[in-house]
Write a structure and sequence with these properties.
CATH topology of the largest domain in chain A: Ribosomal Protein S5, domain 2
Number of helices of chain A: 10
Mean pLDDT of chain A: 95
Order of helices and strands of chain A: EEEHEHHHEEEHEHHHHEEHEE
Oligomer: homodimer
CATH class of the largest domain in chain A: Alpha Beta
Helix content of chain A: 25-40%
Low-confidence stretches of chain A: none
Structural class of chain A: alpha+beta
């Protein structure tokens, strides 16, 4: 019996929510199929889709590690075989490793008839995310699992708060085809933050939550500002300021770096504005000769799910 | 014609919202009466109530300064006479100077038939608050004016966001009768904050907003934590840790320092719990021989208003 799960792309940080906020897209996403195999243990049979080579060793693969952990937890001697289809580009900053880890955990939950809750699945998905980055943050994993917009209130213990979002909220992803090492990008961040910036950041984070929950687009727009990571990380992204201004010029509510980049996200209240923002951002990269791709999607209200 | 306005006590910072959050109580508050006088200029005729001596010079008085500024703005040559009744103890950390400034601005708005909005009145009330503290923060002034719970999203320009609060939210104020200089207390605060604490603080600030807006008392409780000001300021308040534990032990949702202290606030979902929390906190101060007073109030949904 093949069980296939889909898990969507996600945007973490969301300007003012460094390490504590994220939202899911509707598409694209990764698809993971699991089935019982005759031999015990976990094996990866195939990896298809976006072409970056990924480890076939399940212990070193973001989809493999959660399955290994789940089999161990269930105390089963069954063997599981995995097919991975990457709909997401690796290293793009839209939660590629999170999507594979979450899809694998969700599919395996059904295969094993384990009946685990999202909170429990999150802990297994973390095993996959650990492979991709030093410090584990769940601001991609949790929107990928829950869907919609998610606040990670705290990490000790992990406290996930789903936040209602307005109906018509569209996201543009501008993905410059260049590589940023998440670890490197994180190392560049300041270790301490001036008090004035802390006050600005907490005000904006609180404002974004209030804006989302009341569909107050003006407040959302005023809150989508990052005084902590964006000032540093923008220097890794050619044309960042011009792209951001281009998106805002087309009427986007806000624009910042998705996760640790290199992708940018912009939010808009219609598909039309989202599309225009993408085109305008793309033109900036055309000018400097940087290849890129553009994704348009609503905020995805449904997170990871079994598709067959 | 006498115009009298009432403005309530308020709690700023609210644990996780340093400089950006505050809420109003129903009572107590300050009362300011204004009337036209025969001679031009502004004069203070009387100050009654809580006994701390306050300046009779209107330019040096938190209720006088807003009236001076409003007369100037209106370009009137009328004279105004002020009576101040202090229901709030000065220097207690529950917005005493804010209440006088706001009550004066609200009363004067009616006396002059100026028709100013709350946003405009806030700017005049700031003239009063400036007298009491070096740096002007509006996290007492704005809940005092608007009522309820208020987020100050940003200061450039000032962006006030009223936040809906659950019906049954009670506040206990424990006021130790000792003096803390706001300026001194502010100087002790760290100038820079470690990144980990910034993430904790933004998560809690965002969580508190979400908790208030969905009447999720568990989330409110988990969010009412301060890793920035409380660790420093608690050392100015004898018995702080014991009082906080006593309040939480009685079932309070959270307990921290009101403004820059010395008062503590605790939040609770019933008058009974609020009362028990107050008694338990008071016992701690009894043990160490520190005189104090206790205030119980619901969160005040109505801010400053004309009462006669």
């Amino acid at each position: 019996m093949d069980i296939t799960a889909f898990a969507p792309a996600s945007v973490s940080n969301v300007a003012c929510g460094f390490d504590i906020m994220g939202f899911a897209l509707e598409r694209p996403g990764d698809t993971v199929t699991v089935r019982f195999s005759k031999s015990p243990g976990v094996s990866i049979r195939s990896i298809s889709g976006n072409a970056t080579p990924l480890p076939m060793d399940p212990a070193k693969n973001t989809a493999g590690a959660p399955v290994i952990a789940m089999l161990k937890r269930c105390g089963t001697r069954a063997g599981v075989e995995i097919d991975i289809h990457k709909g997401l580009p690796v290293g793009s900053g839209i939660g590629s490793s999170a999507a594979s880890a979450v899809a694998a955990a969700v599919a395996c939950n059904t295969l094993l008839d384990a009946g685990l809750s999202r909170e429990e699945l999150l802990h297994f998905a973390i095993e996959g995310e650990k492979i991709a980055s030093e410090a584990v943050h769940v601001d991609n994993l949790s929107p990928c699992l829950w869907g919609g917009f998610v606040l990670v209130r705290g990490y000790n213990p992990i406290d996930i708060v789903p936040i209602p979002v307005p109906e018509n909220l569209w996201c543009t992803i501008l993905h410059p085809h260049l590589e940023i090492q998440t670890k490197e990008s994180r190392r560049m961040l300041p270790k301490v933050i001036p008090m004035g910036d802390v006050i600005t950041q907490t005000g904006n984070a609180a404002g974004l939550i209030a804006g989302l929950m009341t569909a107050n687009f003006g407040l959302i727009s005023r809150s989508l500002r990052d005084v902590i990571a964006e000032p540093v990380r923008q220097h890794f992204i050619p044309g960042f300021v011009e792209m951001k201004n281009a998106a805002l010029g087309e009427g986007a509510l806000g624009c910042s770096i998705s996760g640790s980049g290199p992708s940018l996200f912009a939010l808009a209240t219609s598909e039309e504005v989202a599309s225009k923002a993408g085109t305008a951002m793309g033109k900036v990269l055309d000018t400097i000769g940087c290849p890129h791709s553009i994704i348009l999607s609503r905020i995805g209200r449904t997170g990871a799910r079994i598709v067959s």
